């Protein structure tokens, strides 16, 4: 077949361009017409940066790669454009024009008129200059609110599509296993059910806007030894099956995710990028995933340079392609000439190239990139003057009022009140001491994959592109009659003690001292949280604990506020702070959210997605520990957290009563129905987060003491009550048994309705009866929850 074949019903249109023909037939025809070089060209990306003048993109020379010659590459085609917006600061409208013009060039240069698929980061919002910076994933988990996260993701996706981007590299579905790991801020929680439900909602939102969501990192990245980035993973097969795989399994079943990214790490000597059992056997053959698998940046080359399982670039390409990686990112290194040569000399069959190519072209066809009326110019530029770039500046707003309102909603729902002796909410204080390194720092609310912290820091003369009010700004608006005095005290991690005396003096003269501590997001050691910013122990960075302890010695009430990317041990503050407010990089509206909680304008409803440790050296530890992971008399290390997973306080009170269970016994393929009443007995409206934990007292293999199997937010006015009904399928009691298969065993269970993993309120003791039953990836994954009003007292 050649490039000029036409179909009868649409004369002059090549078969692969005909939208009336099935996608499979179009793709088969196109593959049949391609040379080997044209095939492999669709299997890699080129890292580029959009032009701030609206011209074509410029290749980005990353420090791990040599320069790319676009002129030499484009005649055979190009699979992907890497991060056109997330590489340099560029006005969104001019970036969209630059991308469109580049797509025209790509399509015009190759024989088949195939454009590239453009991808960018969207971990906490579209990582583009001027785009809304939403809270980080750890804050998503703190909301316990999939619906709000779904709305946020849809907004992010719409912004990305509006400028011509097709794929987003999110969400991270790694379950947090060690809080010392720098990328904790990118994870959603330490619990697989919470990660799965929140992550799936994010994917649904992104995909609803037409963006290809990318599940990452598959699998085990977060289980690295000692919490080190890009280190070997220590997980066994049951931990992988029961803790780390379920979020991916749920998202693939329920979200419509169209891409998966491999993890960098190796497990028991097998790198994920080389693991055919994982990327093909489990992901595709068992779970039925039919999208694309993209390489984490440089992961294929790492098979040679870091893992030592390939002798040369061709060997790395063959290994990854055979395992199931379809697309090399961010640049061409192994899937270009080395792969072509390996096919030519028989080291890898061309059928494997065709397999990856078919998935890639299918995705492009479904995105409309092969249609005859494909137009790279986004609708946002319709009617614009494309000749004068200056006229385009400001035409596209990626941070409009609706986005900011949504960012504030997520941030408000994510703020966690850890402790409170009654000092909060503040009652019209006259003098506020605002202390600490994050008290007046605009970027303190941002994670490491936000544009200002990820890219903007390399362009110090460029404006941030978004408004980032500091906590000083928002407190001044929240308490207009108060005198607010600011003293930094110390830096984030400089260890400077010289300002602590001044901070103490300011605190002594105030009615309340707000000490704002935490992290600075960055990359590879340039921050205290973020990719490559791992820590040896969970102590507050720098001299922040010394500042905090000095303030606690005073008579002035101290409210500790944390703007951080991970939980930290807080020492004396756990018992001696008047209150502790925890926020995980809450995004551009985060300080408004925190100020609202401090004033009482917002009743806090966030819950901890990760435990807060009591001591700094007890890691790795999560609430999912088995009995031997709990405090014992035979070890001097006590891993009991200061604040447990799921914990969070409110300014009102809730009463849980009248538990009923429909049946005490059910078969191993049955279900249990529970109901109880929850009532707001306080004086103001509030939200209780009901959590359901399963405890299996006796099992054939060791189980966690408890694990989350359901949750819901219950919003109640003062005096209002709801009858909450939950249905718990027996499938949720399944685990990986001795033979490696997932099993539901007969026996007793406890279903704990709780306000946190450490605060059970009502417990149902039930029994599964009948034969042991094996289940697979089609099992039921969710507790169903319903609410109905009850009469007021």
Automatic annotation (TrEMBL):
- Tell me which residues make up the Fibronectin type III-like domain: 688-757
Q: Which domain of life is it from?
A: Bacteria
InterPro entries documented for this protein: Cellulose_deg_GH3, Fn3-like, GH, Glyco_hydro_3_C, Glyco_hydro_3_C_sf, Glyco_hydro_3_N, Glyco_hydro_3_N_sf, Ig-like_fold
**Family assignment?**
Belongs to the glycosyl hydrolase 3 family.
Q: Where is this region: Disordered?
A: 773-793
Which keywords has UniProt assigned to this entry?
A: Hydrolase
Protein known as: Beta-xylosidase
Matches recorded under Pfam families: Fn3-like (PF14310), Glyco_hydro_3 (PF00933), Glyco_hydro_3_C (PF01915)
